[in-house]
C-alpha cells in the first residue's frame, strides 16, 4: 500500500471512479465481453475467464505500493464500463502514470474517457501536487495515441523494443506526459471538450 494514494473516490457528471474490489468481478467481466476486448493484443483487457485473477493481481500491486486500481462506473446505468489505474508511482519525485485503461465497446467514443482522464489528472495535479503525469501506449494502438494527444499530452519519446506484448511480439512504447506548469491550459481545454459532450 502506498501512503501517498489512499481512499480515492472521484466523480463527474458521467462516471464515478471507485477503488477496484473483488465484488466488482461480475461487472468487470460483463464490461470486457462487450466488444471482446481481450482479442486486442495491444490492450491490457483480460479474457472473461481470467477477470478474477486480473483483479487479484491488481490488488496485490496495490498492496505492494505499485498502483491504485479503479473501476469506471457509468452513473446513468450504474454499470461498470471499464477500468484504469494510477501506476509507476514515484512519491519522491511527485510523478505517476495513468494507464492499464480499457472500456467496454459501448462506452468508447462517448465522452467517458475524457471525463475519466480529467478526474484523474485533476486529482494528480491539484490534490497530490504531482510534477508530471505520464501516459504510455503500444506503438500499434493508434486510437490510444490519438486519445492521449487529444488530452493535451506531449510525446516525450519512444522506448524501442521496450517489452513483449500479449502475442509475444516486441513492442515499442510511446511515452507521453503533461507537466504541472501545463495543467491550467490543459484543464481549460478538457473542460471545453467535456461541455460539448454533455
Explain how this protein is built:
This protein is an alpha+beta fold. It has a single domain, classed as Aminopeptidase, CATH 3.40.630. The protein is about 30% helix and about 30% strand. Helix 3 (about 110-125) links the parallel strand 5 (about 95-105) and strand 6. The longest helix has 15 residues, at about 110-125. The chain is globular, with a radius of gyration of 16 Å.
Global structural class: alpha+beta
Helix content: 25-40%
At CATH level 3, the topology is: Aminopeptidase
Oligomer: single chain
Give me the number of helical elements: 5
Number of domains: 1
| Helix and strand element order | EEHHEEEHEHEEH
Whole-number mean pLDDT: 93
Portion in beta strands: 25-35%
Main CATH class = Alpha Beta
**Principal-axes shape call:** globular
Query: Using only CA atoms, what is the Rg?
Result: 16 Å
| Fourth-tier CATH superfamily name | Gcn5-related N-acetyltransferase (GNAT)
What is the number of beta strands?
8
N-to-C span: 36 Å
**Name of the CATH architecture:** 3-Layer(aba) Sandwich
Strand order across the biggest sheet? 1-2-3-4-5-6-8-7
| Model regions low in confidence, pLDDT < 50 over at least 5 residues | none
Biggest sheet: strands, sense, closure? 8 strands, mixed
Outline of the structure:
The chain is of the alpha+beta class and 198 residues long. The chain is built from five helices and eight strands. Helix 3 (112-126) runs antiparallel to helix 5 (183-197).
Amino acid at each position: 500500500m502506498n501512503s501517498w494514494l489512499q481512499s480515492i473516490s472521484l466523480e463527474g457528471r458521467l462516471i464515478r471512479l471507485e477503488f477496484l474490489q473483488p465484488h466488482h468481478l461480475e461487472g468487470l467481466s460483463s464490461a470486457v465481453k462487450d466488444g471482446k476486448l481481450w482479442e486486442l493484443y495491444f490492450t491490457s483487457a483480460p479474457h472473461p475467464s481470467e477477470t478474477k485473477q486480473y483483479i487479484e493481481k491488481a490488488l496485490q500491486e496495490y498492496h505492494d505500493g505499485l498502483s491504485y486500481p479503479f473501476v469506471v462506473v457509468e452513473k446513468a446505468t450504474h454499470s461498470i464500463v471499464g477500468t484504469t489505474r494510477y501506476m509507476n508511482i514515484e512519491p519522491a519525485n511527485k510523478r505517476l502514470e495513468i494507464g492499464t485503461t480499457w472500456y467496454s465497446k459501448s462506452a468508447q467514443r462517448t465522452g467517458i474517457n475524457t471525463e475519466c482522464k480529467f478526474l484523474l489528472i485533476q486529482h494528480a495535479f491539484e490534490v497530490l501536487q504531482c510534477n508530471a503525469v505520464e501516459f504510455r501506449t503500444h506503438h500499434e494502438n493508434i486510437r490510444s495515441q490519438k486519445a492521449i494527444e487529444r488530452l493535451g499530452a506531449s510525446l516525450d519519446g519512444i522506448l524501442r523494443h521496450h517489452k513483449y506484448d500479449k502475442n509475444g511480439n516486441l513492442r515499442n512504447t510511446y511515452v507521453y506526459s503533461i507537466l504541472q506548469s501545463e495543467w491550467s491550459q490543459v484543464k481549460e481545454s478538457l473542460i471545453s471538450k467535456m461541455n460539448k459532450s454533455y
